[in-house]
TrEMBL record, chain A:
Its main location: membrane. Belongs to the CPA3 antiporters (TC 2.A.63) subunit E family. The keyword Kinase does not apply. This is Na+/H+ antiporter subunit E. PANTHER family: NA(+)/H(+) ANTIPORTER SUBUNIT E1 (PTHR34584), NA(+)_H(+) ANTIPORTER SUBUNIT E1 (PTHR34584:SF1). It comes from Geomobilimonas luticola. It is a multi-pass membrane protein. It comes from the Bacteria. The lineage of its organism: Bacteria, Pseudomonadati, Thermodesulfobacteriota, Desulfuromonadia, Geobacterales. The chain crosses the membrane at residues 12-45, 51-69. It is found in: Cell membrane. Pfam families: MNHE (PF01899). Keywords: Cell membrane, Membrane, Transmembrane, Transmembrane helix.
UniProtKB/TrEMBL annotation, chain B:
PANTHER family: ANTIPORTER SUBUNIT MNHG2-RELATED. The keyword Membrane applies. It holds the Pfam family PhaG_MnhG_YufB. It comes from the Bacteria. Keywords: Membrane, Transmembrane, Transmembrane helix. The lineage of its organism: Bacteria, Pseudomonadati, Thermodesulfobacteriota, Desulfuromonadia, Geobacterales. The chain crosses the membrane at residues 6-27, 68-86. The keyword Repressor does not apply. This is Monovalent cation/H(+) antiporter subunit G.
């Protein structure tokens, strides 16, 4: 019960903050804000029951974000270079990599993040494998997925 | 404040460059999968730079926060849509483009 109330309070504060930011600090429409925040908290508690996401570690999150932003820049430059080359040097392939993260949120985060990172795009999550499309077969794809999976495991505090 | 102004303009130009490159890639790349690559990466970095540049010019802190909040929300949408389109293309049996052997 204590866990539930803590979760309820945290999410209420979070959604209220988002409303405040979206309304640019104006509280004129506060009755609407109360309804919207209450509805958001209700939906979020139903879709993601308390206890599952509360294990997220702050240090893990910082490490993950740092890694994500660094890799995003590399990916952006790589794609920009490929697009502007006279003859784009594409060597695409669809590869399958084994998944070591637990089902649910960690796997979804892995797939989503890979789609935003250099040269990789998730195509199919199936059993214990993620099939993905890569722009260049020659890149160290497996290592990259390993590194990202390690960051996500630290973020959720899970064993692999 | 000259430095902030300069940094802001630089970020806006960089953002514009990534959008341009992403659009060129969208037009030039050969199949649905490779085109999805250009879209999600350009969105990610181009939008990040644009929003950071605009946030530096914002009149108030809350407005800057609002601009920066757009970035993660767009990233979530971009990642989900990218996966959904790639997944559908794969289900329809569309093969990944390969360079022909000479």
């Amino acid at each position: 019960m204590g866990l539930f109330i803590a979760s309820l309070l945290r999410r209420t504060v979070g959604f209220a903050l988002i409303w405040w930011i979206a309304a640019e600090g104006s509280l004129v429409a506060w009755p609407l804000a109360v309804i919207a925040v209450a509805a958001s908290v209700a939906v979020s508690l139903r879709l993601l029951p308390p206890g599952k996401a509360s294990a997220i570690s702050v240090i893990g999150l910082a490490g993950f974000l740092g890694y994500f932003i660094r890799q995003s820049m590399l990916g952006g430059f790589q794609v920009a270079r490929l697009a502007l080359q006279r003859r784009p040097q594409l060597h695409p392939a669809i590869l399958a990599v084994p998944l070591t993260l637990p089902q649910g949120l960690p796997r979804m985060l892995l797939t989503g993040t890979l789609g935003l990172m250099p040269g990789t795009l998730g195509v199919r999550l199936e059993d214990e494998f993620l099939h993905m499309h890569v722009l260049d077969r020659g890149m160290p794809i497996t290592e990259e997925v390993e590194q990202l999976a390690a960051h996500i495991a630290r973020l959720f505090g899970v064993q692999r | 404040m000259l430095f902030v102004e300069l940094l802001s303009n630089l970020l806006l130009l960089t953002g514009g460059f990534f959008y341009l490159a992403g659009t060129v890639g969208l037009l030039r790349f050969p199949d649905v999968y490779t085109r999805l690559h250009t879209l999600s990466k350009a969105d990610n970095l181009g939008l990040g730079c644009l929003l950071a540049g605009l946030a530096l010019k914002a009149d108030s802190l809350v407005l800057a926060l609002k601009l920066l909040a757009i970035w993660p929300l767009t990233l979530i949408a971009s990642a989900v849509v990218g996966y959904a389109i790639a997944h559908r293309a794969d289900r329809l049996g569309i093969p990944a483009w390969q360079r022909e052997k000479p």
